[in-house]
Amino acid sequence: MTDSARYRLAGAAGLLTGVLLLVNDLRREDLLPENAVTESIAPVPAVLALFALTGLYLWQRHTAGTLGLVGYALNLAGVAGLLIAEFASHFLFADLTTAEVEALVDGRARVGFLVIAAVFALGTVLFAIVSWRAFPRWAVALYAVGFLLAALRGAVPDVVVSVGFLLGSAGLLGLSWTLWRASSSAPARVVAAPA
Q1: Contact criterion met (CB below 8 Å) for 87 and 65
Q2: In the chain, is it the N or the C terminus that has fewer CB atoms within a 10 Å radius of its CB?
Q3: Helix, strand, or coil here: 156?
């Protein structure tokens, strides 16, 4: 498989991630029904995002430097942590009462979820700083602002988190579309003109 094909697959994974995050947001806001299908797909965007983020990082790695590597690693770790949280929420906690869930996430688990959110937020900021020169600035800005708001889940009203997912998803769609379209040329040629 060529590098170009790998980047196109990563771009496609990012596009699908953005769409599925929007579906999750619609479900959270009761605009889509909550059922076995919509619950089951909830963790899928985090799985796809791991591949998409890797493609986005590798595309710009030659100019990203050490900060880019650190931002990518933290962002990837944060998304992996979110995958665990989404899986727990939709598969492990699904049949438990609210009191049982609260008892489970009290103490160490709550600290773990806060650490995941903090790592994801820091990774998002660093990844956005490095991506500012490599991708359209509107997409990077939406990605950063949106996912920073989403990282505040549990500390801010649900509507703020939903707006965050909406903005972050739009940003990810923009980044992924750029990677998809530009992947037929050499990676170094993309890292030039922000839109």
Answers
A1: no
A2: N
A3: strand
